[in-house]
Amino acid sequence: MFRVVSNEEIAPLLHRMVIEAPRVAKARKPGQFVIVRCAKGGERIPLTIADDDVAAGTITLIIQAVGISTRDIVAVQAGGYLSDIAGPLGQPTEIEQLGRVVCVGGGAGTAVLFPLAKGLAQAGNELTTIIGGRSAKYVILEQELGAFSRRVFTTTEDGSAGETGFVTLPLKRILEDPEQRPGAVFAVGPVPMMKAVCNLTRQYGVRTIVSLNPIMVDGTGMCGGCRVTVGGQIKFACVDGPEFDGHQVDFNELAARQATYQELDAHGCRLDSQLAAMKKD
Amino acid sequence: MTPLPLKERMAIDRVHMLEQDPHQRACNFLEVNQGLTPELAMREAERCIECKNRPCMEGCPVGVRIPEFLRAVAEGDFESAAKILRVDNALPATTGRVCPQETQCEGVCLRGKKGQPVAIGWLERFVADWAAEHLPAEGAPAAQTGFRVAVVGSGPGGLTAAGELARMGHKVHVFEALHDTGGVLRYGIPEFRLPKAIVDREVENLRNLGVTIECNVVIGRTLTVDEVAAEFDAVFIANGAGLPMFLNIPGENYKGVYSANEYLTRVNLMGAWMDVEGGTPVAKGETVVVFGGGNVAMDSVRTAKRLGARHAICAYRRTKAEMPARIEEIAHAEEEGIEFHYLLAPLEILGDEKGWVRAVKMQRMELGEPDASGRRRPVPIPGSEFELPCQIAVVALGTTANPLLTNTTPALKLNKWKNIVVDEKQATTLEGVFAGGDIVRGGATVILAMGDGKVAAHGIDEYLKGRTPKG
User: Fold this and answer.
1) Cα–Cα distance for residue pair B107/B124, rounded to 1 Å
2) For residue B182, what pLDDT band results from cuts at 50, 70 and 90?
3) Alpha helix locations (H) across B209-273?
4) Which of A178, B176, B205, B469 is the most exposed place for a label (fewest CB within 10 A)?
5) Residues B51, B8: contact at Cβ < 8 Å?
6) Torsions phi, psi of B98, nearest 5?
7) Position B38 pLDDT exceeds 70
8) Which chain B residues contact residue A229 at CB under 8 A?
9) Which residues does B213 contact at the CB level (< 8 Å), separation at least 6?
10) Which of B66-80, B127-141, B283-297, B344-358 has the lowest mean pLDDT?
């Protein structure tokens, strides 16, 4: 059992939870994730570790409550317990000295971006950060990221904060200016955003790292559910990733696979009633 | 009680296992085999002719004293039989259900030379279940050595080693990566073959022996082997199977294509078959095709049937004679209406416009010359391609070595398949670190992993003698 130290809603349906997990706190590096199971019978949910406090033995998770399982997790208040936390899993971010770096976060992906950006800044890189969201309340961690970024741009689809439009707008301006062109771009967010960023950076030949969040079960390489095609080869996001060269990722396949369980009913899987009828016989 | 005269013993026919009706069980996850009654068990045990050479013991990877055990059962002394099992086999209720007895103890039983071998597996199952109901739990031994041994993985290899070491008086701490114990016994083998209540019971037995189990610790990630080795007096690595193999054919990433590991983990470990709100889902289909011919393929295709597939198809490249699955599993599958398509190999998985599987392009094969495994090699028949419509495809081709632990432990010597190299005592190239099961063998059986666990436990005990505990 893992004790929840604090739990605050930092944006609609977006929670920052600090949890006691001393072994994970000690071992984790930026870019790694944990598998969380709220209670017995629940799903195993992969969540990026946003931060740690080794002395306190805690990790910070930023969780978007989008489904039943994530809603169950964020419903656990300070003093309560989560049944299981396993990790840290995945490869840590390769933190290099790249000089100028642009970090792009979209929606809850900004939370995944945070530890990566922090690691890059600590290594002495000069950060420009772009945060996008549907509207102002979905633009998160602006202050936190601003603490170690040289500048922060924000964009919203409805214009309620920052520039109206997508993260690619400020990114394009930066890429077009040879004085500002970065050594690498790190992008984390919804698949269409990462795809758009990669399509843009490809034109300028700027290396782009993305962090993928395919469906996962065990998180240790055992099931292969998180397989993604990178450069024409099958990779397991849990052991080979979650970060990959965005220019090599098959985003269409990833988006399709992510939708598997939303589409179940449409796929002729309405067998439960048949099964019930068979059981009666 | 004096044994029956030999002639009378020879005249007894092999017992029939009571089974759930095939039509009924194809729609539920309850155990297929219902067990023997005490009378049936005693009569079956009487069939042992107590031959001089005891080939059955040789055939058992953990060396259970089978003739003594059978004699006790024949006499109705189930308690003595249970005590023999307890000493020789850490997980008798499990092995009695999942061992391939036909290639081990029963395969070499003298009675099988002419007729049917003694049903050793079923008797083991009977006695283990009897003991659970009638005997008090075994506690930790009074004399403790003061040594602390870490076991990596709570699957069959790890649990066996833990039990052996605990009985020797060592303090054992097991690290398990998943949120629950049992390894493949929990995530891999389905409820209808090995009820999870049995796994719980076997684990409880070990806890009663003083073994502690810590879940959610991924060795190689949460802690390294070096960190564990620094803290404990010895280490046994039994972290199990690794990454699932795929076919490397086009279309394998369509929705509805699963590795057998994922399919079974969703259903068994995560309980997808119970279909509870907020639980882990699994995609179902009217036609499910499973590729492979081993026990994992049988478990997958029989699971598909129970999840409601009208056509649960096992597609295998060779014929029934070459199938590596246990004979009992194949027979049970056939009874349940599993459709076996032999001499078929998949060429491509075909998808619909939304990225879901719609069919598999298959090619017919014929058997050619024997290959390195001694089995006749399947050879494609040109022009025999056809489409087999399906909604779910499950790939059950085995696994490759898990890199998580070994990648972070460079001092461990690996072979070319990235499996850990060990000596005859299961010792690795790292001092005080032993290993066994799939991480060494690259994919084997529950009982072979258990055999490794037993050998390693003795190797560790020997290694610890003459040392002082780290404290």
Assistant:
1) 16
2) very high
3) 225-231, 260-264
4) A178
5) no
6) -120, -5
7) yes
8) 253
9) B154, B173, B174, B176, B181, B203, B206, B207
10) B127-141
Query: In chain A, which residues have pLDDT < 70?
Result: 265-281
How close A109 gets to chain B, by Cα (Å)?
23
Taking the model in full, what pTM does it have? Answer: 0.91
What interhelical angle do B156-167 and B446-464 show, nearest 10? 40
Which of A223, A261, A268 is closest, CB to CB, to B265?
Answer: A223
Q: Which residues contact B46 (CB under 8 A, 6 or more apart)?
A: B3, B4, B9, B12, B74
**For residue B195, what pLDDT band results from cuts at 50, 70 and 90?**
very high
Q: How far apart are CA B158 and CA B149, in angstroms?
A: 11
Q: Is the pLDDT of residue B438 over 60?
A: yes
pLDDT the model gives residue B1: 61
Collapsed DSSP state (helix, strand, coil) of residue B249: coil
Do A224 and B259 lie within an 8 Å CB cutoff? Answer: yes
Q: Which member of B218, B286, B355 has the closest CB to residue A268?
A: B286
- Mean predicted lDDT score pLDDT of chain B: 93
Q: How many CB atoms lie within 10 A of CB B376?
A: 16
Residues near A47 by beta carbon (within 8 Å), at least 6 away in sequence:
A33, A34, A35, A36, A61, A63
Give which of B465, B254, B278 is closest to B359, Cα–Cα.
B254
* Residues B222, A23: C-beta atoms closer than 8 Å: yes
User: Is the C-alpha dihedral spanning B338, B344, B348, B351 positive or negative?
Assistant: negative
Q: Which residue of A has its CA nearest to B219?
A: A87
Between B117 and A96, name the one with better pLDDT. Answer: B117
CA distance A215 to chain B (A): 11
Which B residues in the span 29-88 are in contact with A, Cβ-Cβ below 8 Å?
none
pLDDT digits (tens, 9 = 90+) for A246-259: 999 999 999 999 98
Task: Supply A187's token pair.
Answer: 């992008």
| Number of residues that make up chain A | 281
The one-letter amino acid code at B198 reads: I
- Residue A198 and residue A247: Cα distance in Å, rounded? 6
Report the alpha-carbon distance of residue B41 to residue B49 in Å, rounded.
Answer: 15
Q: Are A117 and A125 in contact (CB under 8 A)?
A: no
Query: Which chain B residues in 199-238 lie under 8 Å from chain A, judged by CB atoms?
Result: 215-218, 221-223
Other CB atoms within a 10 A radius of the CB of residue A270 amount to: 12
- Restricting to B residues 285-314, those with a Cβ less than 8 Å away from any Cβ of A are 285-286, 307-309
| Reduced DSSP (H G I as helix, E B as strand, rest coil) percent helix, strand, coil of chain B, to 5 | 35, 20, 45
Per the document, the length of chain B is 471
Distance between CA B380 and CA B384 in Å, rounded?
8
Query: Are B176 and B217 a contacting pair, CB within 8 Å?
Result: yes
DSSP letters, B337-375, are TPEEE-SEEEEEEEE-TTSBEEEEEEEEEEEEEE-TTSS
> For chain B, what is the total number of helices (H) and then of strands (E)?
18, 16
The percentage of residues in chain B with a pLDDT greater than 90, rounded to a whole number, is 81
Between CA B105 and CA B273 the distance in angstroms is 34
Distance, CA of A69 to CA of A103 (rounded, Å):
29
Name beta bridge partners: B435.
B237
pLDDT in tens, B202-230: 999 999 999 999 999 999 999 999 999 99
Other CB atoms within 10 Å distance of the CB of residue A159: 12
